[in-house]
Amino acid sequence: HPHHVVSPQDRPHRFVASAIYEFPFGRGRKWIRSGGWKNYVFGGWSAQGIYQGQSGPPIGFGNIIFRGNLHDIVLPRSERKVERWFNVDAGFERNSSLALAQNIRTFPLRLTGLRADGYNNWDLSVFKTFRIKERYSAQLRVEAQDAMNHAMFSPPNSAPANTAFGTVTGVVAPEQRRINVVLRVNW
Questions:
Q1: 84: Cβ–Cβ under 8 A, 6 or more apart, which residues?
Q2: Mean pLDDT, the chain, as a whole number?
Q3: Which of 47, 94, 98, 136 could bond to 132 as cystine, CB 3.0-4.6 Å?
Q4: Burial class (CB in 10 A: 0-12, 13-18, 19+), 36
Q5: Measuring CA to CA, how many Å separate 131 from each of 125, 157, 158?
Q6: How far is CA 130 from the centre of its chain?
Q7: Angle, CA 141 vertex, CA 135 and CA 145 arms, to 5°
């Protein structure tokens, strides 16, 4: 019979926000309106931020034997750690010698309330634009991708007979915070 199951691509929450702020210093701005050295030092600065947050994917289980209550599997967020992402003692059969060769599956493929780590990312940048001559300008940028250096954990191990069952053993993106300094000249 067909069955209902949450998609492996399901992400119920996604939030993205971005902002750019031009500081009010320098020629033609609210403060330090004159040119000269003050304009070169304090004028033309802007800041940019992009935040992305997203729910994690549902955790999938193989063909397992489960003799417990499904509601006992999910741990409260305050108790969840990489060493114990969900309750491994909720009724999973951990002995591999008791696995069935043939059976009718009764345990869901994926559970809606049990998800891997989500996406929590800040990209921040500060940049200064200054005019060299009338036709020439330059922009100095300092960009921090994943500025807060949040780890994005891979899904936990979901094989009950494995010794790492219920633990997170890796990260999705091996590269975390990256800072770039860029000078761009326009003519």
A1: 75, 166, 167
A2: 87
A3: 136
A4: exposed
A5: 20, 55, 58
A6: 34
A7: 150
pLDDT 10s digits, 75-104: 998 999 999 999 999 999 998 888 777 777
Q: What's the pLDDT score for residue 79?
A: 92
Burial (CB < 10 A; 0-12, 13-18, 19+), residue 181, is exposed
Tokens read off for 59: 């955790």
The owner of tokens 């549902």 is 58
Identify residue 95 by its one-letter amino acid code.
Answer: N
Note whether 134 and 109 are within 8 A (CB). no
Other beta carbons within 10 Å of 171: 14
Give this prediction's pTM: 0.76
Residues across the chain: 187
DSSP string spanning 106-157?
A: -S-SEEEEEE---EEEEEEEEEEEEESSSS-EEEEEEEEETTT----BPPPB
Cα first-last separation, the chain = 67
Q: Which three-class secondary structure state does DSSP give residue 76?
A: coil
d(CA 114, CA 86): 8
DSSP symbols for 17-73: EEEEEE-SBSTTSSB--S-SHHHHHHTTEEEEEEEEEEPPPEEE--S--B-S-GGGT
